[in-house]
Amino acid sequence: MNTAQSSLFRYIREKKSGQNLVDGDAVFLELFTRALPPELDRPILSGAFFILFVVNGTIDLSANYQQHSVHRKSLVILTPRTIVTWRAASPNFRAYAIGFDPNFFDSLPPYSHFYNQWTAYVSEHASPVIELRDAPWKNLFQNLSMFPRIETSRLHRNGMLRYLTNFLLLQIADVLYENCTRPSGRIAHATELYQQFRKFLAVHYKHEHNIAFYADKLCISPTYLSRIVRQVTGRTVNHQIAHRLLIEARYLLDCTDWPIKQIAEELHFADQASFGKFFKEHMQLAPSAYRQKIGLEEPVPPRLS
Fold first, then answer.
1. Sequence-separated (6 or more) residues with CB below 8 Å from residue 203
2. Are 173 and 207 members of one domain?
3. Per-residue pLDDT tens digits for 263-289
4. Could you tell me the pTM of the whole model?
């Protein structure tokens, strides 16, 4: 029986197809059309915080079942829980990619410049794709092109890579700042609480579908948690939980041969009927009908209000 336990980051590490950075907490890849990982022809969990910088050509990718055509001078940011599929690339496609272990990402303090800017950006933009102006594109290209030039035999290689990585994150933070309409510093406390909520959600979303559980974990009231999440993201807590469940449900329907009853149990719905009602509410299709459509038509867009 097929399972859904693999991830892109684990695949890259096992195949040793990337250059290790920052004491092994990150990997660097130079991607070409002819050398794209074969695992990407189907939905796969990213398993890391990925930054993709397109140097040349175009690529069509899906991030959490949303389609994007990405071209030169584009920056793509993927979180560890993103379901990604790369569908087609032009013959001249070339890109740099860096993947950070989730522990590295989670270790960033909530007051860090990078995390604040990232949180502010994702709260305003549904798309993970950023179109870069000429100056930021040139600066990022110069930095990223230095990674493969650092020889493994260098005495201070780790220090150089760590410096370049930290500098890169600061450069990207500036790009995110330029693409936000709301300064991140105004909601520092809300951002910290929202970060903690996201961590709890990533661990417990399959088992806990109720806002009261997450509010209790944060030692705040459900009303206050609702206000914080809406302040930071513009959406409700229930939307955040449903969105995470829906992505996982689609992934399991796409990538496993599990019976629908087993998927309902995996996501801790009361029964198969409850899961079917939830799925149809958001996808306008029953799980069995959705599974039949896979590979036959264009992906069905979710409807999450």
1. none
2. no
3. 999 999 999 999 999 999 999 999 999
4. 0.72
